[in-house]
Write a structure and sequence with these properties.
The complex is a heterodimer. By secondary structure, chain A is of the alpha/beta class. Chain A contains five helices and four strands. The radius of gyration of chain B is 11 Å and the shape is globular. Classes of the chains: A alpha/beta, B alpha+beta.
């Protein structure tokens, strides 16, 4: 497989979807792909510093996964940035709605971005939605 | 002389062992080897894929009592 760009829109707050998005972002980034993640809706809350990062399970898989030594989705996203140069952008609209300041977000996140800019930058890349 | 370090990622699920390997590879010299211990079969299949994709070298992959010993040489 040749290298490509992967754009991920993460809007869910469920454990399974956060986990799968983190897996795609981290493995994609460390395999030489350009990865950009857009955090919005129910996903953004977990990236506030010191916030509760235990996402509820959507189904039985999520419940089972919680009892196993699966890497935490936040650690995977951080690895995607540190090891694979992925960019993770908080959605500026979601920040406004939730009244979250940029300083309150995890330091490995990039600057806030609007949807228009994210989509323009995404161009012809693969867009994955979780 | 080339060195070999070992990372114990037993008990961790995909992509934990791969991420630990990549973090470890950044810290060693070209030509050195890194051994990852993994109890996750998916990772045992995936790590060689990653190694080939990014241009490092697979030295060996053996299974002993449910633990895979995956040895990679840093090539660049």
């Amino acid at each position: 497989m040749s290298n490509s760009s992967i754009s991920i829109m993460l809007v869910s707050g469920s454990h399974e979807r956060l986990q799968m998005a983190a897996m795609v972002a981290s493995v994609g980034a460390v395999s030489g792909n350009e990865v950009a993640v857009f955090l919005s809706m129910n996903a953004l809350q977990y990236f506030v510093k010191d916030a509760n990062a235990e996402a509820p399970a959507e189904g039985s898989f999520g419940e089972i996964m919680s009892g196993k030594n699966v890497p935490h989705f936040k650690n995977l996203f951080e690895s995607a940035v540190e090891l694979g140069d992925a960019k993770i952008y908080p959605c500026s609209m979601a920040m406004d709605v939730l009244e979250i300041a940029e300083e309150a977000l995890e330091s490995y996140l990039s600057e806030p971005l609007g949807l228009t800019k994210f989509l323009v930058d995404a161009g012809d890349s693969q867009i994955w939605t979780f | 002389m080339a060195e070999k370090k070992t990372i114990d990622a037993r008990g961790s699920y995909c992509p934990g062992p791969l991420m630990e390997l990549i973090a470890g590879i950044k810290l060693i010299e070209v030509g050195d080897e890194l051994e990852v211990l993994s109890s996750d079969k998916g990772s045992a299949n995936d790590i060689p894929e990653w190694v080939n994709k990014v241009g490092h070298e697979m030295v060996s992959s053996t299974e002993d009592q449910g633990v895979w010993h995956i040895v990679v040489r840093k090539a660049k």
